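lol forgot to send this yesterday, sorry. struct tokens for the thing we talked abt
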């Protein structure tokens, strides 16, 4: 009654609903589809690599619509950047899906997906964590010196380089308050689109850092703008994956049930924090997902013979998502306490909004 079978494996419905709910909270907060956590998890649950990728692409598209509506209400979307990126994103997704189908044809989709996930996420974690810690330190120093702290603080100078590239045409993003070559936006869309199509993700785990550290938007705008892009990449990816027979629609249905609730809370939670807090959660989600994917990669490479490793991988997958949800809930709780003048840990004030 509470299980169904996919590819010869019995999958508990409860796990799918819980996965959708927890990833909905995390995705709504940091602006990602959560596929870099969900696709490896589905592989552990018994889905073949190609079906895990395709099923998650459909789940991501539905969840992104819900989160985008909420972020639009919060004013966290730059439509100029989002729409300028659409063409590159769709091209990238098409290339990514074709690459996935190639690995599917040679029987290596699971191994290649997990190996690529580990490599990309580890690199992004290291850079994001280092930069965010520097930003947090600067905010803490400004707070102690009595200087006003903005909604977002970044110490990276990389966006200045990309904004100075003199290749026409240029776009003027009013909400983000910047002018940049459209080619930069298009290339970001292509690269993240390839990852979206291949890994079965929305591409947000690399697009959000790209919008912050390459384009130069604030973290809050990166979250909302990326979710609009995920609607496009996820929607197109879901269509192509469905055409390729890579989707289990019953699994999609159960995950979206959980995501509908989680995405609402995660999106609203961004209004309680400053930019570095969002980037902290993003970086922690990346390293946790990297460890989980590495464990699953070892399990696949050993031919699935180490049963305890499979069990640990499932527990870790669920544990990482629950941990991130609790971290986000804690930030909201600390923000409310800080707004009412109550005691909070010393590292909290620079990261939360005080009305």
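and heres what i got for the seq, position by position
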């Amino acid at each position: 009654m509470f299980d169904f079978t996919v590819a010869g494996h019995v999958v508990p419905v409860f796990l799918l609903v819980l996965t959708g709910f927890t990833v909905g909270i995390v995705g709504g907060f940091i602006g990602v589809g959560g596929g870099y956590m969900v696709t490896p998890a589905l592989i552990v649950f018994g889905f073949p690599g190609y079906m895990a990728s395709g099923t998650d692409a459909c789940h991501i598209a539905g969840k992104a619509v819900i989160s985008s509506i909420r972020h639009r209400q919060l004013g966290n979307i730059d439509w100029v950047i989002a729409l300028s990126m659409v063409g590159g994103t769709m091209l990238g997704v098409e290339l990514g899906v074709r690459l996935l189908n190639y690995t599917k044809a040679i029987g290596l989709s699971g191994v290649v997906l997990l190996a690529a996930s580990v490599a990309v996420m580890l690199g992004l974690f290291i850079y994001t964590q280092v930069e965010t810690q520097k930003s947090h330190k600067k905010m803490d120093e400004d707070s102690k010196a009595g200087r006003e702290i903005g909604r977002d603080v970044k110490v990276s100078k990389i966006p200045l380089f990309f904004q100075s590239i003199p290749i026409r045409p240029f776009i003027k993003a009013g909400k983000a308050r910047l002018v940049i070559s459209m080619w930069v936006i298009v290339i970001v869309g292509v690269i993240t689109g390839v990852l979206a199509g291949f890994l079965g993700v929305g591409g947000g785990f690399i697009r959000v850092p790209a919008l912050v550290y390459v384009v130069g938007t604030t973290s809050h705008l990166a979250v909302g703008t990326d979710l609009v892009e995920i609607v496009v990449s996820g929607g197109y990816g879901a269509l192509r994956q469905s055409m390729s027979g890579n989707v289990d629609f019953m699994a999609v249905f159960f995950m979206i049930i959980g995501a509908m609730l989680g995405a609402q809370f995660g999106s609203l939670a961004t209004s309680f924090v400053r930019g570095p807090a969002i980037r902290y959660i993003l970086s922690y989600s990346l390293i946790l997902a990297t460890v989980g994917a590495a464990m699953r990669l070892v399990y696949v490479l050993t031919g699935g013979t180490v049963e305890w490793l499979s069990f640990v991988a499932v527990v870790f997958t669920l544990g990482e998502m629950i941990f991130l949800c609790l971290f986000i809930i804690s930030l909201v709780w600390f923000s409310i306490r800080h707004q009412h003048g109550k005691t909070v840990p010393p590292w909290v004030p620079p990261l939360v909004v005080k009305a």
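Residues 3-351 form one domain. anyway ping me if u want another try
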